[in-house]
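C-alpha cells please, single chain.
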Amino acid sequence: MLLLLSCHQAPDTSHLEKDLLRLEAKIPLADVAGRIDHLAFDATGHHMFVAALGNNTVEIVDLATRARIHTITDLHEPQGVAFIPSAGHLAVANGGNGVCIFYDGTNFRELGRVSLGDDADNVRFDGIHIYVGYGGGAIATIDPSARKTLGNLSLRGHPESFQLDDSGRVFINVPDENEIVVADLNRSAVIARWKNKGASANFPMALDKKQEHLFVVYRHPAQLRMLDCRTGAVLASSPCVGDADDVFYDAGSGLVFVTGGEGYIDVFRGTTLVNHIATRKGARTSLWLPNERRLIVAVPARAGEPAALWVYSL
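Here you go.
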C-alpha cells in the first residue's frame, strides 16, 4: 500500500548505516557562478563535462589529474550533455536558445548544431542516436554523425528526465502534466500514461533494466518511488532529500543514489534509506560512474565557497 506523506516529512535517519560513500576529492571550479545542471563522462579520456547553466559554459575537468582543463564559452543556458564514445564527440543542449551543439571531445572545436526551437534540456545517447527533450513537449531523435533531426516524439508537456530501455521504449517524466509517459521510439508513439497520485514535480528518473523497475523522485513531497515498468504500479516509496534533480541506480550493488538541492546525498537499497550524507545547498545534480565506482556531485558556489565537483567513491 502506498503511504501518502506530508510535504514537510523528512527522511527517517534513526537507523542509518555507516556512510558507504567516501569523499575523496573536491575539484574547484573557480569563477563558475550560478546553477549547475547535468554532467557527462568520457571514460577513455577521463574527462567530466559539466553544464554550468548559470555561467553559460561547459566546464571540462580531467578526473585523473583532478583539474579543470578547458571551458566552452558563449553558450545559452546549457542544460543537458552527452558524450558519444564511438566518435569522441560531445553534445550540449542549450535551454536558452533551444540549440543542440556538437563538439570534438578532444580539441573542443564546434562540429555543427541542430536547432530545436526552444528549451533544449535532457540528452541521452543509446549507442546510435542522440535524444533531446525540448520545448513545450517533444523528444527529438538526432543523427549525431549527420547532425540532423530524424524525428520527434510529441508530448503534452516539457519532458524532464527520461530513460531508454533496450527494446526502444522510453520512460519520460512530464511534471507539467503530472504524469509519466511511456513511448515507443521506433514508432514515435505514446503507449501509456501513468498519472501521479499523492505526489507531484517528478523530475529525476533512473531505470533498473533487469528487474524492470523505474525509480522516480518527486519534489512535492520529497519522495523516491519504485514503479513496475510494465504497469506503472507503485511498488514501494520513501521520503528523500528535497529539491532532487538526479537519481541513479547501480546494478552492481543494487544501490540508488539521489542528490538534492536541500544539501544531501541519499543512498537507498531499493527504497530503504541507508545513508543521508551532507553536501552543500544547491548541490542537486550528479553523475554515477559505475565502472569507476564513483559519484560525482556538482556543487555550486555558495557563501564565499567556490563551485566544485565533489568526488565520492564507493
